[in-house]
Design goal:
Elements lengths: L5 H7 L22 E7 L18 H8 L2 E7 L4 H10 L3 H4 L7 H4 L12 H7 L3 E7 L11 H5 L3 E5 L22 E4 L2 E4 L5 H15 L5 E6 L19 H25 L6 E7 L8 E4 L2 E4 L7 H4 E7 L8 E8 L3 H9 L15 H4 L11 E4 L5 E3 L2 E3 L7 E4 L3 E5 L5 E6 L17 H8 L48
Parallel strand pairs: 1-7, 1-8, 2-12, 3-4, 3-7
Antiparallel strand pairs: 2-11, 4-5, 5-6, 8-11, 9-10, 13-16, 14-15, 16-17, 17-18
Length: 495
């Protein structure tokens, strides 16, 4: 059984310079590496989490995780599934990785996460000697076409909902559409339906078994839960629940229930004191759902760059190492996870790629209150387009937001500031301060960030695969179709 001491941990995390193309394990890192579990809930804003002030729903295990760890107030995801997940995997902003727009590879074909052209946090952790696993929702690759995608990306083992394979099924009635009851799941043994089972239980048990099998070595788990994304369903704890809101609440309760089971299993295996757990979400709740947050009505913000869409609940816990009961205003975003986990593991990420994140190790351990960031950024969402040169983003330069601890700037597709808000006084983001003399300095400071960003967002980078019958048809000419492209006569462009 591995036991950590703070002095050993700090010595082991000294990072040496990069000496070769591949990630380098630092001296003595193997003796001090914590297990790391990154839990990513699907479509759930702060308004549904009790410890953040969400009302009318119980989340006792999440609340306990926060009470014994750090609860962050200013952690940014992206506003939709694909950009957030790619951001986490790569440690890059969507404008760099190309995954600006949402794209379901198994549903629409064409574009996919190409492990040969993108960095991977799983590969980084493997380079440090970690056993790696992923379970839940992926959707960045089509397992029919690339059955070995997960090992290539760096995961030793996996248990994944396949996604809507070749289907635009909006009724969630096809076999491959099922992520909850009678789920269709891909493992090393292939893909199949698990009749009369509840998908979240299958993914969860797989991870518990993985933990037990790998408890004598450090492990890294990426747990992108299927919950609480639609379709809204009853759960094993609430079999007779009915109605949209009540089903959603039942799914929130079940996600909380699974967290409790995971923590109990770590205790049972004697691993809790050596495991760093991060609990967060990929984007805000569905816009069809509304709840009360600290007495204020909040509509779900999925796909929006308002705070209800991108300011994620974010909790970090490691008994004896992460301060208990702390609330942090440090600026955090998903690009930070790659360098942070590498820092804890004692490695440097692959030097062949550029990264946008900061290591938060000192913040997590309570040794620093600030993250070193002056700003965080959010952007992306909505489906991309299939062009004659493959999958491309809809925008030449996607609208986005940047914010510091207090102020937030909305930036339009023509690279100009369009709205400035003071979040400390205006949580509804209703009042535009552009034009206010007393905020000219703030506007100038945040607007200067625009000049640090590339003029054009990258498109997804991947080697084209042969077309299949489900591959979305080409409808646009590459590049010129984009909003804001200089050849698009209706566009305005600053530079």
């Amino acid at each position: 059984m591995r036991r950590l001491k703070l002095t050993t941990l700090l010595l082991a995390f000294c990072v040496s310079s990069i000496t070769s193309w591949s990630a380098q394990v630092q001296p003595d890192a193997q003796s001090a590496q914590p297990n790391i579990i990154f839990i990513l809930i699907d479509d759930l804003g702060k308004e549904w989490i009790n410890c953040y002030g969400g009302e009318g729903v119980d989340t006792p295990n999440v609340d306990a995780l926060a009470a014994t760890g750090i609860r962050f107030n200013n952690a940014y995801s992206m506003p939709q599934c694909t950009p957030s997940r790619a951001c986490f995997i790569t440690g890059q902003y969507p404008f760099r990785s190309g995954w600006v727009n949402h794209w379901d590879a198994p549903r629409w074909g064409g574009g996919y996460f190409d492990w040969k052209q993108n960095p991977s946090i799983a590969r980084t952790m493997k380079s440090a000697g970690y056993a790696t696993a992923v379970a839940g929702k992926w959707q960045l690759n089509d397992f029919r076409v690339q059955p070995q995608a997960m090992p290539e990306i760096g995961f030793d083992d996996y248990c994944m909902w396949t996604g809507y394979e070749g289907s635009t099924d909006k009724t969630h009635s096809r076999a491959t559409s099922q992520r909850y009851w009678n789920p269709y799941i891909h493992t090393k043994e292939g893909s199949k339906t698990y009749q009369d089972a509840f998908g979240p239980d299958i993914y969860h048990q797989f991870l518990l078994d993985f933990i037990s099998k790998n408890k004598e070595q450090p492990f890294f788990i990426y747990y992108p839960m299927a919950l609480t994304h639609s379709p809204l369903v009853h759960t094993p704890l609430d079999m007779k629940v009915d109605g949209k809101v009540e089903k959603h609440k039942a799914m929130v309760r079940y996600a909380d229930h699974l967290l409790g089971k995971l923590l109990a299993h770590l205790d049972q295996e004697g691993l809790r004191d050596n495991t760093l757990v991060i609990w967060t979400i990929d984007n805000g709740s569905s816009r069809t759902l509304t709840n009360t947050l600290n007495g204020r009505t909040v509509v779900g913000g999925k796909s929006q760059t308002t705070e209800n869409g991108v300011n994620a609940p974010f909790i970090v816990n490691w008994p004896g190492m992460v301060p208990a009961g702390k609330v942090s205003d440090a600026l955090v975003d998903f690009t930070d996870m790659h360098p942070t986990f590498a820092d804890f593991a004692g490695v440097t990420p692959d030097a062949a790629y550029s990264y946008d994140g900061f290591s938060l190790k000192d913040v997590f351990l309570g040794e620093a209150d600030e993250s070193g960031r002056e700003w965080v950024l959010a952007m992306g969402g909505s489906p991309a387009r299939m062009t004659d040169k493959g999958v491309q983003n809809v925008f030449y330069f996607r609208d986005r937001v940047v914010r510091d601890a207090r102020y937030k700037l909305f930036i339009s597709p023509d690279r100009t500031p369009e709205k400035l808000v003071d979040l400390s006084k205006d949580p509804e983001e209703a009042h535009n301060l552009i034009g206010s003399p007393e905020h000219e300095g703030v506007l100038k400071r945040l607007a200067s960030i625009i000049d640090q960003l590339p003029e054009m967002d990258n498109d997804p980078k991947y080697e084209p695969l042969p077309k299949n019958e489900w591959t979305r048809k080409t409808t646009k000419q590459a590049d010129v179709h984009k909003t804001g492209h200089p050849d698009n006569t209706g566009a305005k462009k600053k530079h």
